[in-house]
Write a sequence for this structure.
């Protein structure tokens, strides 16, 4: 069975993908994004990713509940707002955190600067997730309620990003054994 790096190398060497990746414009875009497919580091340990993801989900739900409590206290008119119901925001929060937890090892695999790329992706995803909230505001929902929803997105992003990159960091390259070095002619 092929290891993950071998599989990635085979996919990258596949003729249709190789043709697309060899185009100068694509290469420049990938380089600007920090995607090089050959990072020097090892991937984060899956156990640490799983633990950081679970902790991010719990802390994000706690942050959501806190923001809802503070929001309804500061803006009493938002009390009973449908999107402030735990069942409403909990499922979306958990789905988002799980998606980020799955994305972190992928980003670490394709980038030599995974924290930077993941940070930029977190910002982009958070901004995209603002769009439904802006939409419901444009449809006449309370600006105060929407502000709380936006704050919830930011809190989830900050918690999830920091737990994943700090509690499940990429690892230093493996040291080559003496036998491997001699085989390589080093």
């Amino acid at each position: 069975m092929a290891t993950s790096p071998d599989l990635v190398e085979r996919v990258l060497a596949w003729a249709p993908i190789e043709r697309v990746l060899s185009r100068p414009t694509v290469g420049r875009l990938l380089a600007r994004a920090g995607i090089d497919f050959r990072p020097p580091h090892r991937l984060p340990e899956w156990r640490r990713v799983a633990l950081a993801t679970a902790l991010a989900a719990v802390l994000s739900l706690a942050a959501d509940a806190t923001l809802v409590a503070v929001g309804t206290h500061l803006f009493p008119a938002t009390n009973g707002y449908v999107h402030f119901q735990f069942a409403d925001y909990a499922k979306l929060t958990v789905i988002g955190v799980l998606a980020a937890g799955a994305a972190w090892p992928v980003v670490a695999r394709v980038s030599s600067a995974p924290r930077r790329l993941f940070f930029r992706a977190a910002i982009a995803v958070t901004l995209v997730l603002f769009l439904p909230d802006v939409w419901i505001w444009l449809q006449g929902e309370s600006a105060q309620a929407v502000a709380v929803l936006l704050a919830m997105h930011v809190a989830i992003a900050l918690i999830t990003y920091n737990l994943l990159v700090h509690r499940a960091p990429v690892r230093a390259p493996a040291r080559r054994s003496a036998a491997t070095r001699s085989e390589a002619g080093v």
Q: What stands out?
A: The radius of gyration is 21 Å.
